[in-house]
Records
---
Amino acid sequence: MLIFGVKNKVISSKPVDVVCTECTRTEQRVHTFQRYFHFFWVPVFPLSRQSVLECQHCKKVTLEKELSDQRKAIVRLKAGAIKAPIYMYAGSVIIVLLVGWSYYSIKVENKQTMQFLSSPAASDVAVIEAGQGQFQLLKLIAVEGNRIRFQIGQYVYKSAASAKTAIRKEVFKESGYFSDDLFEMPMDKYKQSQIKFVKRENGH
């Protein structure tokens, strides 16, 4: 369940010498509210801003848009040029960091897969596209000269990501995951196959 929406936060509260239209007292304050978008209560970015006039004596609250032009000018002058608090950009910063980390991780993963693919080793487990948008796991049993021997996983995945997850969770280590049959192919053909990811023992 996603929890997101818009909230208000008082970012400034200053006294102002303006007569209350209700009780004629001058004990008033200008409260400035900053609206911001949040995701799971974490501020992502600021939105609009609004000031209100509150009498500290009778508690009458007047929105900025309801004030006369003269009072509105006084309120705006008193509120001043207030910037949104830095923490209201926290969600945006987190998103940028996550995107950057994801991009970096993908680059490292692709580079490592190419390295493992260029020099296959026994016990490598790879994600291979089996055609028609389906993916399987392939486990190298032996690398002998220019040929490799391998087993094929008996499960089919609908995406490369779900097949990678199966590798990371080490589902392939479960008994009976791979077929008992051994297959063989030239190493050059293996290198040219639609390999999407490779995990190596003591590797990633």
---
Amino acid sequence: MRPEPTVLAFDTSAAHCAAALLSGGRIVAAAHEEMSRGQAERLMPLLQEVLTEAGMTLADLGRIGVGIGPGNFTGTRIAVSAARGLALGLNIPAIGVSLFDTTRALGGGDRIAVPAPRGQAYLRDFGTGGSPALLPDLPQGPLTVSSDHSVPDHVAQIARIAADRDPAGR
């Protein structure tokens, strides 16, 4: 049995800056702030606060988990760029986790919807193996919606999924 990696997970793909630290299979520290802008300036200090709360440093990390949307393009770029820089500097893997994956893990079901701008919705049907599609509105029928869960729940799930995923993408 392989040891569980310590994972620092974070997400800035919407109007928030959120982070969670997974160690020993449980969330040991987390932080979340609602913000419409300023994620680029706030992300690294927030990550340091989460590490400090848990009594850890960057050297204790085994993986980075990062939210990859769908969501705000600039926000997603902020988090992915930070994850890439940390992963390269620490020589550890960075694992991208979509909002579809966290929603499915939190709520179950194969049909996952993520609200999009202008009343639209992204839909991914894991049952058919299809790619996400942008629809003019929220579809009907059995469905799990990402907004049914809190941002802290999603970022904690990013950490758990990143801990379980093969870093080589296999």
